[in-house]
Amino acid sequence: MAFKIIASQCTQCGACEFECPSGAIKFKGETYVIDPKKCTECEGTFETQQCASVCPVSKTCVPA
Amino acid sequence: MSAPMISLQGLSGTTVFDQSPARAKSGGCASSSCGSSAKPHEMDSAVWEKIKDHPCFSEEAHHYFARMHVAVAPACNIQCNYCNRKYDCANESRPGVVSERLTPDQALRKAIEVANQVPQLSVLGIAGPGDACYDWKNTKATFERVAKEIADIKLCISTNGLALPDRVAELAEMNVDHVTITINMVDPRIGAEIYPWIFYENRRYTGVEAATILHERQMSGLEMLTARGILTKINSVMIPGVNDEHLIEVNKWVKERGAFLHNVMPLISDPAHGTHYGLSGQRGPKAMELKALQDRLEGGAKLMRHCRQCRADAVGLLGEDRGKEFTLDRLPDKVTYDASKRETYRAVVARERGDRMAAKSEALGMVKTAGSGKSLLVAVATKGGGRINEHFGHAKEFQIYEASPKGIGFVGHRKVEQYCLGGRAEDKSLDGVISTLEGVDIVLCARIGNSPEDRLKESGIRATDAYGYDYIETAIGALYAAEFGSEPLAATA
Q: How many Å apart are CA B197 and CA B206, to the nearest integer?
């Protein structure tokens, strides 16, 4: 399982990128994208998904 | 197009004022009530050295020096009800708003170009959108790169304080000696109404729990900065019905913890901005409500009254924004720092400000010897340098001074729509200017036409260009003496 970023809502602040414990988030083109192969949904590392917890716009980092 | 600014020539020109024997009285200024405008003889010399070139930390310096903000740290660790993270705009001028975000390398290029073009530049700040202490990698990289190229530039940051305690040691190492912390509450129950959530130690907190963590981190960050001798300015957003009364308590707390200045800013709330407060109909305070609160805070932590609530990418003197001249597409690909303009300007300012201080001292003497208990509210059109050097019709704001038995003090600024555009005067905007100047007794400017002068007169506001290019205090002192003194004085210009 992985999370994804709704590009149209993203403010490109980049907080998710540096909070992601798996290095799954990168800036590509115009927005941040989550590599589903690397995303672990923070399972076993944190209680909550870091990208969704720090994202300033609701419903922007969501389950893929 | 060359932008309006104080030219070196304008500043180095001869001073026109009556050279009658100085009646300097030390401590004559109401320094306890207008702290940020205090002068060297009234404050610790080490503190003066730190603030004398910083336009935001010193009212006096804001006449001479300019700041630039670089938006390099867009990530934030808290959500505030007055902030909308989706908002970027070229035409809005308010905190948090930018038209482009920069990488540290782009910020370096911009800083060098601005330093080459704007001789008044003395400060590089990182003030949003986002939090400079949270988005630390970008902040640090920017400061390190800029400090290496422009060694004498002052570095400062603005922060919500949540991540601040983790960064104090590095801030001190990098010689960042001006930090602004936004503190809107010391009671977490009030904080819970302002902050929907914080992100701390890998999880999101809400409600009173979130506000309690934020409060504790803010206080500890402030104490750590004070312990290291780093100057702090506290920004508080005044939210009527939420924290307006409470800010009196906030002022006490921050004073006890060594805050250097307290800047109470009015909430900016407009549905079009899409913030929670904008959408929920929470109103901002009226100008008079803000002033009433500021007056009640006198005697606590010193107040900043010259804040313009500038954009997070503003460039130039406070009150002007030359940001549009320095957008990325206008920056040369390769830039080399040339210190010559800034050095020349500093030499001129060093002479000029000593001269102005003597003139101010003399003007205070004039006000005191007038022996009147009355006060005079004066609006000044100025481009900087502490002089009356802007045409009435070109002014985008007026700086408001009050002369009273307490002295001559800066009390604020009022923004207006420029009345004369491209040589054509607009009657409609003159109406707006007149209503903005309500309560003002006299307007001082470099030039004014007969028609606007008459229109102002009909509204009970006198205007004169008789003191054009004089120091502001010199003119106000002479006016006050002429108005209330026993022996009318001749105009000095």
A: 4
Q: What are phi and psi of B136, to 5 degrees?
A: -70, -35
Q: At what angle do helices B164-173 and B136-149 cross, to 10 degrees?
A: 10
Disruptive mutation site among A6, A50, A54, A60 for chain B (greatest number of B CBs within 10 Å): A54
CATH code linked to domain B357-484: 3.30.420.130
Q: Which residues of A touch B76 (CB under 8 A)?
A: 13, 15, 56
Q: Where are the domains of chain B?
A: 53-330, 357-484
- As a whole number of angstroms, the distance between CA B123 and CA B392 comes to 29
Q: Is the pLDDT of residue B361 over 80?
A: yes
- What is the identity of the amino acid at B324? K
- B53-330: in CATH 3.10.25.10: no
pLDDT of residue B73: 94
Q: Are B263 and B158 in contact (CB under 8 A)?
A: no
Residues of B in contact with A12 (CB under 8 A): 74, 101
B145 CB within 8 Å of a chain A CB: no
Contacts with A14 from chain B: Cβ below 8 Å: 74-75, 135
**B196 → chain A, closest CA residue:** A56
Complex ipTM value: 0.96
Position B20 confidence tier, pLDDT thresholds 50, 70, 90: very low
Task: Report which residue type is found at B99.
Answer: S
* Alpha carbon of A37: minimum distance to chain B alpha carbons (Å): 22
B202: nearest CA in chain A?
A50
Q: Across the interface, do B86 and A48 touch by the CB < 8 Å criterion?
A: no
Q: Identify whether the C-beta of residue B54 lies closer than 8 Å to the C-beta of residue B62.
A: no
pLDDT digits (tens, 9 = 90+) for B436-483: 998 999 999 999 999 999 999 999 999 999 999 999 999 999 999 988
Rounded mean pLDDT, A9-23: 94
Quote the CA–CA distance of B113 and B150 in Å, as a whole number: 11
Given a contact cutoff of 8 angstroms between Cβ atoms, the answer to whether B474 and B362 are in contact is: yes
pLDDT tens-place string over residues B154-185 = 999 999 999 999 999 999 999 998 999 999 99
B485 has pLDDT over 80: no
Helix, strand, or coil here: B139?
helix
High-pLDDT (> 70) share of chain B, %: 88
Cβ contact A53–B199 (<8 Å)? yes
pLDDT higher than 80, residue B39: no
Q: Cα dist. B108→B141, B329, B330 in Å?
A: 10, 15, 14
Closest CA to B413 of B385, B437, B390: B437
Q: At residue B423, does pLDDT exceed 70?
A: no
- CB within 8 Å: A18 and B130: no
CATH number of the domain located at residue range(s) A1-61 in this protein: 3.30.70.20
| Average pLDDT over all residues of chain B | 87
A13·B76 Cβ contact <8 A: yes
Cβ distance B77 to A56 less than 8 Å, yes or no, reads no
Instruction: Return the pLDDT at B370.
Output: 83
Q: Do B86 and A57 touch (CB under 8 A)?
A: yes
Cβ contact, residue pair B79, A53, below 8 Å:
no
